[in-house]
Write a structure and sequence with these properties.
heterodimer, A: 347 residues, alpha+beta, five-stranded mixed β-sheet, 12 helices, 19% strand, B: 191 residues, mainly alpha
Chain lengths: 347, 191
């Protein structure tokens, strides 16, 4: 059987220096533009805020959230809205903000879907730092502000398919993961990327539960080519606003062609590895949850079918079970990553 | 006086149903109401099944005799909530696709187990009227010992659906274990 090995990516491919330099220059210019926008916004009649309006239109009218720290406000001042077509957009109706923020699996905050929103009020997302480790030239512990600094925020409207056979459509705010990873200059041994969620027992009741089967911290991983894919997104906001803790504040991963549990929340550590990292659900139940976890209607979870999904929100009589599509509908962007792989075996 | 409180107990047992019905009617079950209803109705079926099994030991330890009068009613309430659970699953989760039900029962062990527990409760429900008790005579008691099998199947069904925290299953499991152990001890003592 043909099994595709992780693509051998040369360091020069991951970090083309000229691109990197160009990018810095570009970011400097972008910074100037952002400054211009800020000035314009401050002057009545000059507001260029059309983009912002498009974002705001999606959020519920009464939505008010305060920034975790002052610098977040300027970070969110100029967000590029999702385009009207292409893979970063879907015309399917959005799952309302209340449902996106009150129906979550975030076991650190409790077992039930409503627990994360009820129990995460005390969770502190500022100050926040992220440890970068492993096979890269720029390891270290970085403040979140420095992590986000060079990245302009954009909006992407993605489908999210949970392994539990429900799904949502969510407008995220963030930036491509690949752009972030390249800054740390991964070397040739970096074949995988491993991520870890924060563990703060004081503010995470689920972590304190004696009956939890999860071995904290929650951990996930991607192959480096998956991580560098244009679709893979690091989100810091949702619905034009700051991420609430239950959705993975301050920074979480979005991998739209994989089951939701791959999209790890509240990230504190990114580690470049040579070996395939372990991932929490695979540790817990290896025959049910694989490392790849690509959305696949033909490979069923042992306890339930995966060929259909319940698009949320549902009403009792809507019966809106829809067909699940291969790679959650993102096959054009990602199918090539798995060419020649037996996806029933590497589920 | 004892007769007069029977309707009260009857109504009391209906409270969870009415509450869930109210939440469903006012669209307050969250974004996935079918799933919420399935979970709640299933849990209430288990609670009533546990209550049914608890009546004999409670009576034994406290000397209350009145409870025995309600055992059948509470047992039937367990069947009632189990039926709700099954209907919710069929109607709202499977969308009445009978072929899907057939596949699920055959392919998903936790559905197979839960469905078996439900069938047992249905049989016990059908044979619960006094006329049936008379008709079946000695066999009635034997048949109704299947309730122990049913509660074990329900526990397996519940544990099988767990994803990452066994706190709830442990709580129910401990109670069920104690209730079954009580029977076993008495049975062994009698021999």
């Amino acid at each position: 059987m043909l099994i595709k090995k992780p693509a051998d990516i040369k360091p020069s491919e991951i970090t083309p220096e000229s691109v990197y330099r160009n990018r810095r220059q570009f970011m400097a210019e972008a910074g100037t533009t952002a400054l211009g926008a800020a000035v314009a916004a401050a002057v009545p009649g000059m507001a260029l805020a059309q983009d912002g309006d498009a974002l705001k239109a999606r959020a519920p009218a009464n939505l008010t959230r305060s920034a975790p720290a002052a610098w977040w406000e300027s970070k969110f001042a100029n967000i590029k809205p999702a385009p009207d077509s292409g893979p970063y957009f879907t015309g399917e109706s959005l799952t309302p903000y209340e449902d996106v923020t009150r129906y979550n699996n975030f076991y650190e905050f409790g077992m039930d879907k409503g627990d994360p929103s009820s129990n995460s009020g005390q969770f502190q997302v500022d100050p926040w730092s992220v440890e970068i480790a492993g096979e890269c030239d720029r390891p270290g512990t970085y403040n979140l502000e420095d992590i986000l600094n060079p990245h302009a925020l954009e909006e992407r409207i993605y489908r999210l398919r949970c392994v539990e056979a429900w799904s949502m459509v969510i407008p995220w705010i963030g930036f491509p993961l690949g752009d972030l990873l390249k800054r740390f200059e991964p070397n040739s041994r970096a074949r995988f990327v491993e991520f870890q969620t924060a563990v703060v027992p004081e503010t995470m009741p689920g972590v304190r539960s004696r009956f939890a089967m999860i071995d904290w911290p929650y951990q996930e991983g991607l192959r480096i080519d998956e991580a560098m894919n244009e679709l893979t997104f690091m989100a810091v906001g949702v619905y034009g606003n700051y991420l609430p803790p239950q959705n993975g504040a301050p920074m979480r991963l979005i991998v739209p062609w994989k089951y939701g549990f791959k999209s790890i929340k509240s990230i504190v550590r990114i580690n470049f590895t040579e070996e395939q990292p372990r991932n929490t659900w695979n540790d817990l139940q290896a025959n049910e949850y694989g490392f790849y976890a690509n959305v696949n209607p033909e490979v069923h979870h042992p306890r339930w079918r995966q060929d259909t999904e319940r698009r949320l929100p549902q009403t009792l009589f809507s019966r809106s079970r829809i067909d699940t599509t291969m790679f959650n509908g993102y096959g054009e962007q990602v199918a090539h990553l798995y060419e020649g792989m037996d996806l029933a075996r590497y589920y | 006086m004892q007769k007069s409180i029977k309707p009260v107990v009857f109504c009391f047992c209906l409270v969870p149903f009415c509450y869930l019905f109210y939440l469903a009617g006012t669209n307050n079950l969250g974004p996935d109401p079918g799933q919420t209803l399935a979970k709640e109705s299933g849990e209430w079926a288990l609670r009533f099944l546990i209550a049914t099994l608890a009546i004999t030991p409670v009576q034994r330890f406290t000397g209350w005799r009145i409870t025995n009068r309600y055992r059948r009613m509470i047992g039937l309430y367990s069947l009632f909530y189990a039926s709700c659970h099954f209907l919710v699953y069929l109607l709202f989760l499977l969308g009445f696709r009978w072929s899907a039900l057939y596949e699920e029962i055959l392919e998903r062990p936790y559905v197979t187990v839960g469905f078996s527990a439900f069938i047992i409760l249905v049989v016990l429900g059908i044979t619960s009227p006094k006329s049936m008790v008379r008709k079946l005579g000695k066999n009635w008691k034997r048949l109704h010992r299947l309730v122990y099998v049913s509660v074990v199947l329900v526990m397996v069904h519940m544990t099988w659906i767990l994803r990452s925290d066994f706190g709830e299953a442990l709580l129910y499991g401990t109670i069920v274990f104690a209730l079954l152990a009580y029977r076993l001890v008495r049975y062994l003592a009698k021999r």
